[in-house]
Amino acid sequence: MRFDVLTLFPEIFSGYLSQSLLKLAIDRGLVRVDLHNIRDWAKGKHRPVDDRPFGGGPGMVLKPEPVVECVEAVQAMGAGGEPGPASPGRLILLTPQGRRFDQRVAEELAVSDRLLLLCGRYEGFDQRIYDLLSPEELSVGDFVLNGGEVAAMTIIDAVVRLLPGVLGDENSSIEDSFSRGNRLLEHAQYTRPREYRGLAVPEVLLGGNHPDIADWRQRDSLDRTRARRQDLLELGDDDRRPDPPQD
Ligand code: SAM
């Protein structure tokens, strides 16, 4: 799967892309992440990417020309910036005003072959960027970040762990909280030692009786969902039922 991130601050991604699961997925050729600096499409001596808002008010607004031209150029690029052929991919603009990103949206995005993630800064985007590009708009939550980069990393992180071959055990992303296993919170987890500071691992997890372990986990998952996230239990049966396997 290919991600193209369009940003004014590509350096923000360097540590993230060179560590842990992301690095492994990239090294194995399961994922590629191409970074594009929107400023490269700005014209003039000072390459301005933002300007003051018409009508007055605080802050600066991202200008339409560099953003629109950057998106159009990246959509036409093949992998690694070479000329096409390329799938134009799904264009996602990060904004606190967008559809709320969650595990279901991550699952929906994970079947795409290419995602373009457009990161804003300052007061956000000139309205004509939305009007001309008709992007999908996604928000990572009801709060305001300084820029879309952290939101883009959140989306990449959640989507990449769903791709076949990225996690050691495919089941772990099905059984995670909110995931298509049952859409509830995951049960408690324990590892060695069997006892720590007087707290023992529940006996049932030590006995190797798999039906009993499955029962215990299902009950724990329900209890903690009831205690912490009643709203998840109020979803309809269809919302909680595992989705059919994808072809
Ligand atoms: N003035 C904008 C508003 O009130 O809707 C907020 C602009 S914010 C300071 C700058 C950029 O950060 C946005 O253009 C967007 O790309 C990103 N951003 C901020 N909060 C976000 C969120 N919750 N989800 C996704 N992106 C966000």
TrEMBL record:
Keyword S-adenosyl-L-methionine: yes
GO biological process, one term: tRNA N1-guanine methylation
Top-level taxonomic group: Bacteria
Protein's organism: Posidoniimonas corsicana
Gene, per the UniProt record: trmD
Protein name (database record): tRNA (guanine-N(1)-)-methyltransferase
CDD domains according to UniProt: TrmD-like (cd18080)
Record's keyword terms, sorted: Cytoplasm, Methyltransferase, S-adenosyl-L-methionine, Transferase, tRNA processing
Function noted in UniProt: Specifically methylates guanosine-37 in various tRNAs.
Chain intervals for the UniProt region annotation (Disordered): 228-247
HAMAP family: TrmD
